[in-house]
Amino acid sequence: MVDSKIIEAFDLMWGNFPEPATLVHKSKEVIATNTACKVVGLEKGMNCVTHGAPEAHKGCLANKALRSQEATFKKAKYAEKEIISYWLPVDGYPELFIHFGVGATINYNTMPDKGSMHKVAL
Questions:
Q1: Engineering a disulfide at 39: which of 31, 44, 84, 122 sits with its beta carbon 3.0 to 4.6 angstroms away?
Q2: What span, in angstroms and rounded, lies between the C-alpha atoms of 59 and 87?
Q3: 109 burial class (0-12, 13-18, 19+ CB within 10 angstroms)?
Q4: Separation CA 105–CA 107 (nearest Å)
Q5: What is the mean pLDDT of the chain?
Q6: How big is the chain by its Cα radius of gyration, in Å?
Protein backbone atom coordinates (compact mmCIF):
# COMPACT_ATOMS: atom_id res chain seq x y z
CA MET A 1 0.00 0.00 0.00
CA VAL A 2 1.21 3.49 -0.87
CA ASP A 3 1.46 6.11 1.86
CA SER A 4 -1.60 8.38 1.68
CA LYS A 5 0.69 11.42 2.00
CA ILE A 6 2.18 10.60 -1.40
CA ILE A 7 -1.25 10.41 -3.00
CA GLU A 8 -2.26 13.70 -1.34
CA ALA A 9 0.94 15.35 -2.60
CA PHE A 10 0.31 14.03 -6.12
CA ASP A 11 -3.26 15.38 -6.05
CA LEU A 12 -2.05 18.75 -4.81
CA MET A 13 0.70 19.12 -7.40
CA TRP A 14 -0.85 17.43 -10.45
CA GLY A 15 -4.62 17.69 -9.94
CA ASN A 16 -5.05 20.74 -12.17
CA PHE A 17 -2.33 19.96 -14.70
CA PRO A 18 -4.10 20.25 -18.07
CA GLU A 19 -2.73 16.98 -19.47
CA PRO A 20 -3.24 13.46 -18.07
CA ALA A 21 -0.77 12.66 -15.28
CA THR A 22 -0.50 9.47 -13.26
CA LEU A 23 1.30 8.23 -10.17
CA VAL A 24 2.41 4.69 -11.01
CA HIS A 25 3.97 1.80 -9.08
CA LYS A 26 6.87 -0.15 -10.62
CA SER A 27 4.39 -2.98 -11.27
CA LYS A 28 2.70 -0.47 -13.62
CA GLU A 29 -0.39 -0.24 -11.40
CA VAL A 30 -1.85 3.26 -11.55
CA ILE A 31 -1.96 4.54 -7.96
CA ALA A 32 -3.50 7.97 -8.62
CA THR A 33 -4.70 10.07 -11.56
CA ASN A 34 -5.35 13.74 -12.12
CA THR A 35 -8.59 15.23 -13.43
CA ALA A 36 -7.46 15.22 -17.08
CA CYS A 37 -7.13 11.40 -16.98
CA LYS A 38 -10.91 11.08 -16.96
CA VAL A 39 -11.07 12.34 -20.55
CA VAL A 40 -8.77 9.58 -21.80
CA GLY A 41 -10.08 6.78 -19.59
CA LEU A 42 -7.10 6.32 -17.30
CA GLU A 43 -8.26 5.06 -13.92
CA LYS A 44 -6.75 4.28 -10.54
CA GLY A 45 -6.03 0.56 -10.16
CA MET A 46 -5.58 -0.23 -13.84
CA ASN A 47 -2.33 -1.43 -15.33
CA CYS A 48 -1.02 1.50 -17.36
CA VAL A 49 0.26 -0.66 -20.22
CA THR A 50 -3.27 -1.88 -20.92
CA HIS A 51 -4.46 1.65 -21.69
CA GLY A 52 -4.57 2.54 -25.37
CA ALA A 53 -2.90 0.88 -28.30
CA PRO A 54 0.16 -1.31 -27.68
CA GLU A 55 2.28 0.83 -30.04
CA ALA A 56 1.70 3.81 -27.72
CA HIS A 57 3.83 2.00 -25.13
CA LYS A 58 6.79 1.25 -27.40
CA GLY A 59 9.82 2.94 -25.99
CA CYS A 60 8.38 3.28 -22.47
CA LEU A 61 11.14 4.60 -20.23
CA ALA A 62 9.55 3.81 -16.86
CA ASN A 63 12.02 1.06 -16.00
CA LYS A 64 14.96 3.27 -17.00
CA ALA A 65 13.69 6.10 -14.78
CA LEU A 66 13.20 3.73 -11.85
CA ARG A 67 16.59 2.08 -12.33
CA SER A 68 18.49 5.38 -12.58
CA GLN A 69 16.18 7.36 -10.25
CA GLU A 70 16.45 10.22 -12.76
CA ALA A 71 13.78 11.91 -14.83
CA THR A 72 13.57 10.63 -18.38
CA PHE A 73 11.70 11.87 -21.41
CA LYS A 74 11.02 10.91 -24.98
CA LYS A 75 9.78 12.92 -27.94
CA ALA A 76 7.49 11.03 -30.28
CA LYS A 77 4.96 11.54 -33.00
CA TYR A 78 1.83 9.49 -32.47
CA ALA A 79 -1.23 9.76 -34.71
CA GLU A 80 -0.64 13.34 -35.87
CA LYS A 81 0.39 14.44 -32.37
CA GLU A 82 3.81 15.52 -31.21
CA ILE A 83 4.14 14.36 -27.62
CA ILE A 84 6.92 14.70 -25.08
CA SER A 85 6.45 11.94 -22.51
CA TYR A 86 8.04 12.12 -19.07
CA TRP A 87 8.75 9.57 -16.35
CA LEU A 88 9.70 11.18 -13.02
CA PRO A 89 10.87 9.07 -10.08
CA VAL A 90 9.46 10.10 -6.70
CA ASP A 91 12.22 11.00 -4.23
CA GLY A 92 12.30 8.64 -1.28
CA TYR A 93 9.96 6.15 -2.99
CA PRO A 94 12.09 4.20 -5.48
CA GLU A 95 9.12 2.07 -6.55
CA LEU A 96 6.99 5.04 -7.71
CA PHE A 97 7.07 7.38 -10.68
CA ILE A 98 4.92 10.10 -12.18
CA HIS A 99 4.09 9.77 -15.86
CA PHE A 100 2.66 12.42 -18.13
CA GLY A 101 2.95 13.68 -21.67
CA VAL A 102 2.89 17.21 -22.99
CA GLY A 103 0.88 17.31 -26.18
CA ALA A 104 -1.06 14.16 -25.37
CA THR A 105 -4.46 15.87 -25.35
CA ILE A 106 -3.68 19.48 -26.25
CA ASN A 107 -2.23 20.70 -29.54
CA TYR A 108 0.02 23.49 -28.31
CA ASN A 109 0.86 24.53 -31.88
CA THR A 110 -2.68 25.86 -32.24
CA MET A 111 -2.83 27.50 -28.81
CA PRO A 112 -2.28 31.23 -28.33
CA ASP A 113 1.01 32.07 -26.64
CA LYS A 114 -0.81 33.39 -23.60
CA GLY A 115 -4.08 32.55 -22.05
CA SER A 116 -5.97 30.45 -19.63
CA MET A 117 -5.83 26.69 -20.05
CA HIS A 118 -9.36 26.28 -18.66
CA LYS A 119 -10.68 27.40 -22.03
CA VAL A 120 -9.12 24.37 -23.69
CA ALA A 121 -11.56 21.57 -24.35
CA LEU A 122 -9.85 18.36 -23.38
A1: 122
A2: 12
A3: exposed
A4: 7
A5: 89
A6: 14
Count of domains forming the chain: 1
CA 57 from centroid of its chain's CA atoms: 12
Q: Which amino acid is residue 99, in one-letter code?
A: H
For residues 1 and 19, give the distance between their C-alpha atoms in angstroms, rounded to a whole number.
26
Alpha-carbon distance of 116 to 64, in angstroms, equals 34
**Structural domain boundaries, residue 93:** 4-119
Q: Which helix (H) or strand (E) segment is 114 a member of?
A: none
73 forms bridges with which residues in the sheet? 86
Q: What is the CATH number of the domain that holds 101?
A: 3.30.450.20
* 11 neighbors 23 (Cβ within 8 angstroms): no
Specify which residues 21 forms β-bridges with. Answer: 100
